């Protein structure tokens, strides 16, 4: 029997985590021969609800679930964590400006970054899904100076999956027939889903759809998909977000398909002229845990304008919370 791997999840009593935890315990991330210990983090007020989730996990009698740790202390939850899903974040409430949301979450993610720096595995993989995800990841990594920025990412995989599905539906094919879609920039309504480099059954995507559909339907549908889900079901995306988090982490651990890439928000190295250090979504390939930005793609003026818009948005977010960065910020 292998030694258990520690997986930490924040916001563990929330909707996304409810969809995520049972799949983790069933082996959907690490396979059917890898025991896991779940380290679950919540705010004190939510601990009673989380205990109910733990009861359900126990009642499933998962053979791979070695142990469940429940805590409101990130240093306890993140101790020796190998994989971390930072799902919990302060939601935007009535009358809150985006700057208020940024400030509230900056305090959470600066604390969590310091805890990760202190107690997590040095090879930890940290995936931020709590919004505003890119800037929350930036805050966390800037408060973890003893960890590499390469240990952190923010999730645009849900947007990537949404983009892939929209293109597949339009072309009447399976999602597996669609390769090399990209979501650039910020996980926000300003993100840029791009199919200039996408292929459908080996054909250039833009040879199969008209430009008006791409600009007037595809882009806004992907950008506003989260709002559309809320309008339809009265709640925000949960199962699809959990599934995308698993997709991203699996790719990060095991690598991407050799004939495809994924979208992943990582610390910019300056590629495509984006300011170095911003957490920006790029097309990436992954091999042996190493994430590489797909370089050298031709970027037309239409796309360039949207990349720059996302960069400006992320700079503005960064500047609003920079005072809560650690010494490395």
| Tertiary shape | globular
Give the CATH class of the largest domain. Answer: Alpha Beta
Total helices: the number is 10
CATH fold-level assignment of the largest domain: L-2-Hydroxyisocaproate Dehydrogenase, Chain A, domain 2
**What's the order of the H and E elements?**
EHEHEHEHEHEHEEEEEHHHEEEH
CATH superfamily of the largest domain: Lactate dehydrogenase/glycoside hydrolase, family 4, C-terminal
Based on secondary structure, the structural category is alpha/beta
In terms of quaternary structure, the protein is single chain
Radius of gyration: 19 Å
- Low-confidence segments, given as residue ranges, are none
Q: In percent terms, what proportion of residues is strand?
A: 15-25%
Terminal Cα span: 42 Å
Q: Helical percent range? A: 40-55%
Average pLDDT works out at: 95
Question: What descriptors fit this protein?
Answer:
329 residues, alpha/beta, Rossmann fold, L-2-Hydroxyisocaproate Dehydrogenase, Chain A, domain 2, 2 domains, six-stranded parallel β-sheet, three-stranded antiparallel β-sheet, 10 helices, 14 strands
Overview of the molecule:
The structure is a single chain. This protein has 329 residues and is α/β, with parallel strands linked by helices. The protein has two domains: 5-154, Rossmann fold, CATH 3.40.50.720; 157-317, Lactate dehydrogenase/glycoside hydrolase, family 4, C-terminal (L-2-Hydroxyisocaproate Dehydrogenase, Chain A, domain 2), CATH 3.90.110. The protein is 41% helix and 19% strand. It is built from ten helices and 14 strands. It has helices at 15-25, 47-59, 74-77, 98-119, 133-142, 157-171, 211-223, 225-233, 239-254, 301-321, and strands at 5-10, 36-41, 65-71, 83-86, 125-128, 152-154, 178-179, 182-184, 192-194, 199-200, 203-204, 262-267, 279-287, 290-293. It has a six-stranded parallel sheet with strand order 3-2-1-4-5-6, sandwiched between helices. Strand 1 (5-10), helix 1 (15-25) and strand 2 (36-41) form a beta-alpha-beta unit. Helix 4 packs across helix 5 (133-142) and helix 6 (157-171) packs antiparallel against helix 7. The protein starts with a strand and ends in an 8-residue tail after the last helix. The mean pLDDT is 95.
């Amino acid at each position: 029997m292998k030694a258990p791997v520690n997986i930490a999840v924040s916001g563990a009593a929330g909707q996304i985590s409810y969809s995520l935890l049972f799949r983790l315990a069933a082996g959907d991330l690490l396979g059917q021969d890898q025991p896991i210990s779940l380290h679950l983090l919540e705010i004190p007020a939510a601990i009673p609800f989380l205990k109910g989730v733990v009861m359900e996990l126990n009642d499933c009698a998962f053979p791979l679930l070695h142990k469940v740790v429940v805590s409101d202390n990130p240093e306890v939850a993140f101790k020796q964590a190998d994989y971390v899903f930072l799902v919990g974040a302060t939601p935007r409430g009535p009358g809150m400006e985006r700057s208020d949301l940024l400030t509230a979450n900056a305090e959470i993610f600066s604390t969590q970054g310091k805890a990760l720096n202190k107690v997590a595995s040095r090879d930890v993989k940290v995936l931020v899904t709590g919004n505003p995800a890119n800037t929350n990841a930036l805050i966390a990594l800037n408060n973890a100076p003893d960890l590499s920025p390469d240990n952190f990412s923010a999730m645009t995989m849900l947007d990537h999956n949404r983009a892939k599905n929209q293109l597949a539906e339009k072309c009447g094919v399976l999602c597996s027939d669609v390769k090399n879609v990209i979501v650039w920039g910020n996980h926000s309504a300003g993100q840029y889903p791009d199919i200039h480099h996408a292929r459908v059954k080996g054909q250039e995507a833009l040879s199969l759809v008209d430009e008006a559909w791409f600009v007037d339907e595809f882009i806004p549908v992907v950008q506003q998909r989260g709002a559309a889900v809320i309008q339809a079901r009265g709640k925000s995306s949960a199962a699809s977000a959990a599934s995308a988090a698993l997709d991203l982490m699996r790719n990060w651990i095991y690598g991407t398909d050799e004939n495809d890439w994924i979208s992943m928000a990582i610390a910019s190295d300056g590629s495509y002229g984006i300011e170095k250090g911003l957490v920006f979504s790029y097309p990436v390939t992954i091999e042996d845990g190493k994430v590489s930005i797909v370089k050298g793609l031709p970027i037309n003026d239409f796309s360039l304008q949207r990349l720059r818009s996302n960069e400006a948005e992320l700079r503005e977010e960064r500047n609003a919370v920079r005072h809560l960065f650690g010494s490395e910020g």
